[in-house]
Amino acid sequence: MRSNRATVRAGVSMAATLPMIAGALALGIPAAHAADSPARDVLKNTKPLWATAKADKGATSDSARVKARVYLAGKDAAGLAAYARAVSDPSSPLYGKYLSAKKAQARFGATKAQVGAVTSWLKSAGLTVTAVTPHYVAVSGDVAAAEKAFGTQLHNFAKGSKTYRAPAAAASVPAALKGAVLTVTGLDNAPHKANHDDQLPPPDAVFKNSGPFSSYYGSNIATTLPDAYGSKIPYAVKGYTGKQLRAAYGAGTYTGRGVRIAITDAYASPTIAYDAGAYALKNGDAAWKTGQLHQSLPKNYTKTEECGAAGWYGEETLDVEAVHAVAPNADVTYVGAASCYDDDLLDSLSKVVDSHLADIVSNSWGDVEANQTPDLAAAYDQVFQLGAVQGIGFYFSSGDDGDQVANTGVKQVDTPANSAWVTAVGGTSLAVGKGDKYLWETGWGTEKASLSADGKSWAGFPGTFTSGAGGGTSKTVPQPYYQKGIVPKELATANNAAGNRVVPDIAAIADPNTGFLVGQTQTFPDGTEQYSEYRIGGTSLAAPVIAAVQALAQEARGGKAIGFANPSIYAKYGKQGVYHDVTDDPTGSGLAVARIDFVNGFDASGGLATSARSLGKDSSLKAVKGYDDVTGVGSPAGGYVQSFRKR
Q1: Among 139, 276, 527, 530, which residue is least crowded by beta carbons within 10 Å?
Q2: CA-based nearest residue to 45, from 243, 185, 227
Q3: Residues 467-483: pLDDT tens digits?
């Protein structure tokens, strides 16, 4: 998985397929298990799609090592999915009747007998049990033992330019364990990680913006630079602060008091407490109170070089500072994963659910749908459903590469944002004017044109696509009930006549050209580590902003958890004053901002680069009137938070 953080240097992106698990019929999803033989229960979708006969390179050596997780289905998978839907649907008599973490585990979790039976089976096959949790049994062993346990052969398959191990046929379990096992992960060893040795490295090299800047949208016009769209354009903002974002999204007097927000990422910034405190002090946010910011971290970190651990420091910093800027009185818990791999990220999400650390969970990471496998998707969705029955809502950034064609060559969405059990957050370009007045938003999509050599024009204007909000139609996840009748048919049926999940659900500021100011300790060229501030964006910004707005809404609701929010979000669609209906060209004249950047990212010694960045140019995706696959139902307007008030 990778983070969805987009600095002014570049847009990085990312996010997940909905698992096809038993009981997911509540959202129109087919069951995962089939007793295809009397002796074995087949775990469908445990063979990756890329493991084709054409790509088969032969059997994996019996002595090769395997690490796997056998996820437990629990005692009532169908009931879990049904209850998760009922408590989340405003039209249901069970709406808001959440269970405690203890009661959810007792009602839907695996029994001791199931855990014991699964453990005994794995040991009898010659595998070593390395961990047992409420969610899975982890094992290790050689290929021969894994093949014996899971009733399949492991082969090597070509995937792109590399070769990975995977099952030659779907895995299975003994028929006696039917209903006890949800899925198995780890039989294939292709990377499943969020992009973005085990001591954390120092902070990344410093990055600064050059300027000149606008203090609010349009405050500083680039009069000496060429026209764009027939007129002079403003310099990009220095970076919006909490006061401007709160005004744009209708915070009013609400501050998130009494609401708990969790943030998951990989690793942990060693300077987060100092940086968050310094940023709040410098930018007019309320000071952090003692005990308001918590961290829940693993004992050890892994894969720090492979995952680029220092790059995740900025992700955590952005998420924590953005949440506090919009919901300054919310309680914030940062839950760091041991690495950027799915297993560790799943553990961090499970930690939130198992201990109910928060009602709202912001997640600014993910991967492209093609890289997700149904086995992992099943494990993710089980956690999301267990959260939903407790009143916990998950918010995932939709990605930063638009339709993904420029990045991967294939039009696709991100995951886990494509899960029908999470709220996918898309991105906008935001104009906040003088006096913190909301002016307009476009869908976030950027085309860049550099200043010509003679300084008289923008070469190749409007230029090439650089980054934009992720969105589109899933190829694997059926359309959830709450999108029916709202998402246009041509979007829902783009990949399947029966209709599929469309991303995103809602949106907020993401464009780094109209981005958010953050403060972070970074490594300067002389080797010193110093606090500095810079502008940043990406749907990694949109997700914590929406999470913070949800905290304001929960406070307005009298503190009652909103839980899985999509049914409520879509139920409010079309009501006056609730959403900004975001379109790509709200002024009708074309929009762009001017940027002057340090070539070396730090100072003018390496030269300056001048460019025009057009807004509302998101690859093949379009923000139009009504629901669209860039901004979903739109961004929160002044009436959104108020719409949750108890009447």
Answers
A1: 527
A2: 185
A3: 999 999 999 999 999 99
Residues 109, 386: Cα–Cα separation, whole Å: 9
Q: Percentage of the chain with pLDDT > 90?
A: 89
What is the C-alpha to C-alpha distance for residues 551 and 115, in angstroms, rounded to an integer?
A: 37
Residue 112 in domain: no
Average pLDDT estimate for 618-632 = 98
Q: Name which of 39, 10, 257, 307 is nearest 151 in CA terms.
A: 39
Tally the domains of the chain: 1
In a domain, 236, yes or no: yes
Domain annotation covers residue 93: no
Q: How far apart are the C-alpha atoms of 299 and 56, rounded to whole Å?
A: 39
User: Taken in order 251, 255, 260, 266, is the CA torsion positive or negative?
Assistant: positive
3-state SS assignment for residue 538: coil
The answer to the question of residue 165 being in a domain is: no
Tens of pLDDT, residues 160-194:
899 999 999 999 999 999 999 999 999 999 887 66
pLDDT recorded at residue 420: 98
Sign (positive or negative) of CA dihedral 327, 333, 334, 337: negative
H or E element in which residue 80 lies: helix 77-88
Helix (H, G, I), strand (E, B) or coil at 593: strand
What are the two backbone dihedrals, phi and then psi, of residue 65, each rounded to the nearest 5 degrees?
-95, 145
- Bridge partners of residue 535, in order along the sequence: 517
pLDDT in tens, 62-81: 999 999 999 999 999 999 99
**3-state per-residue secondary structure call for 354-380:** HCCCCCEEEECEEEEHHHCCHHHHHHH
CA triple 121-342-363, angle to 5 deg: 135
Which tens digit of pLDDT belongs to each residue from 279-308? Answer: 999 999 999 999 999 999 999 999 999 999
3-state secondary structure 177-199: HCCCEEEEECCCCCCCECCCCCC
Annotate 408-465 with DSSP letters as a single string.
HSS---EETTT-TTSEEEEEEEEEE-GGG-EEEEEE-EEEEEEBPTTSSSBTTTT-EE
Give the phi and the psi of residue 23 in degrees, each rounded to 5. Answer: 95, -10
Per-residue burial over 384-395, b if 16 or more Cβ lie within 10 Å, else e, is bbbbbbbbbbbb
Which CATH number do you get for residue 530? 3.40.50.200
Residue 568 and residue 534: Cα distance in Å, rounded?
Answer: 35
Peptide bond into 19 cis (omega under 30): no
Per-residue pLDDT tens over the stretch 424-476: 999 999 999 999 999 999 999 999 999 999 999 999 999 999 999 999 999 99
525/510 Cα distance (integer angstroms): 29
Which of 98, 82, 130 is closest to 421 using CA atoms?
Answer: 82
Query: Left (φ > 0), alpha (ψ -120 to 50) or beta: where does 179 sit?
Result: left
Closest CA to 264 of 153, 373, 351: 351
3-state secondary structure 449-465: EEECCCCCCECCCCCEE
Single pTM value for the model: 0.92
CA 431 – CA 437 distance, rounded (Å): 9
Contact present, 177 and 249 (Cβ < 8 Å): no
Residues making up the chain, counted from first to last: 647
Domain range for residue 303?
Answer: 2-17+202-642
